[in-house]
Amino acid sequence: MGRRRRKKIVKVYKPKIPKIFTCPVCGSKSLNITINRKDGNAYVKCANCKLEWSTNVKSYEETIDIYHKLFDEYIDRLE
Ligand SMILES: [Zn+2]
Known about the structure:
Layout: E1 20-21, E2 31-36, E3 41-46, E4 52-56, H1 63-78
Antiparallel strand pairs: 1-2, 2-3, 3-4
């Protein structure tokens, strides 16, 4: 009589890539980043201060990369 082996549940953890970021202009968490793979552009929009920005996106880039780009852009402008 074999004992029942406890089934090991392997959970595949997929981290969700956030889509809403903190706006570098107004500081509100209402910055939306959309990547359009078809036209190779990323569109950034802030629902609070109406900031709009778009940039080229490479195939390996994710929303977080676009967010960093935007930040660099705005920091450069402020200096
Ligand atoms: Zn904003």
